[in-house]
């Protein structure tokens, strides 16, 4: 019954994803009774409350007359006469006055008590239920649904007839805001929608724009910290917003300026991160994301603007990457861009380092989150941004950066801004590492409160349902320094990217990426000694000196296994030779 109501609501209120005028609460009530097909008026009230919560429309306010209509739709005249006294609780309310959901439920509870058994019998009788549905819809049982759909279709036709206006491209959050004029324009439009009772997100949008996005745009080139090691080596730590091209550009500029021997990035083994470096992300976005869903038309109202913004926002956040490799297409472009510059310097002979230069995947390794006795699905990676897992990730990245700093003359580390404060604090615990320059203040680590209480919250997480936290704690010591790749491996990744971009230009988004899945790439690189996950610094130095540690690639429980049933040979010789 609830599913049917949801279907009717979706068809009448928002068919084909379009924003239509939403039915009134009175219409919701009639739809609820008609779709349910039984006499419990309280079901209608409950349904409206549930829909209000799901759709963000806010708490419903019932008209007294509307409540009487709903009750009348499900009760005999004799029964209504016997229960009419219960409406005296609303004394002082005119028919068009609002009454609270609480009072509506109270009235309905009293009505139910008058003759609950009769109500139950009515609900069981399909013939009476059909009459109730017809009465609730004021005639033909399908009339209300058809009328609302016809009205919505007519409004949509009028809207579509208006002239389409030009709008700018959307490729990150900053360009999204510019498309709609300014943050204030977006906030004002959502305020109008909130006043009409059509959204409950106005405050969230305002808070996100003013407290998160705008500061990140302003400070994109200030989220950094510079360190010096006692040995003379240098580190630049860069914090980014994963959805801002300004962050991507700054990360690239730092790599270009520093020419590091080692590039450390917030990527991991066990998912699509390795194959993700072979995807020409910007080229793919230019082809696949050329037309955002938000369309400007002559005569648009603030409500239209708010709706278009929501459409574009969700589209930008969720649009899949090429063949669904990794996360959304517009997310985390800074890592691929920094890698491109790192590779370009080596191809041009402008930089080198141990093994020609190394790339480190410093984030938490998720290859071992499933033990041999586990069944079912792997723990959700949504936990990566929660609780103790954030502290583990900061510790893992700080360890990898420290190892790189002790073995290379220059290092650039790129992570999300949420990690910068934690990594700074952890690096400063090493007496041989000193911070020599700080951009924007980093504040406190996101885990400082949990750390201050002695880790009690983390203990509760370990004892509770945080399966990912538990597994990462168990396996942390097996890969404490991250995974490193040498220039030969990176050159092959870059070759795959160039071939993928050629295919994209030739065949469009129907083309397939050139590189195999991350697990296949890793198996090949580890077998040939081009990659290593050292257990300590001594083992790391052995690998840097040219030794093949013969590590196993392990499992990749979070990679996209839908890309191919059978991976091509690794590496693709035609690419390397071309």
Question: Describe it for me?
Answer:
The chain is of the alpha/beta class. It has helices at 2-13, 25-36, 41-55, 64-72, 77-83, 101-114, 116-124, 126-136, 143-161, 173-179, 183-195, 202-218, 245-258, 273-276, 281-288, 302-318, 333-347, 387-407, 417-427, 448-452, 456-463, 467-475, 487-507, 518-527, 537-544, 573-577, and strands at residues 62-63, 98-99, 164-165, 224-229, 234-240, 262-265, 296-297, 358-361, 410-416, 433-438, 483-485, 531-532. The strands form 3 sheets. It has an 8-stranded mixed beta sheet with strand order 10-4-5-9-6-8-11-12, sandwiched between helices. The longest helix is centred in the C-terminal third of the chain and has 21 residues, at 387-407. The termini are far apart. Residues 1-99, 114-146 and 562-578 have low confidence and may be disordered.
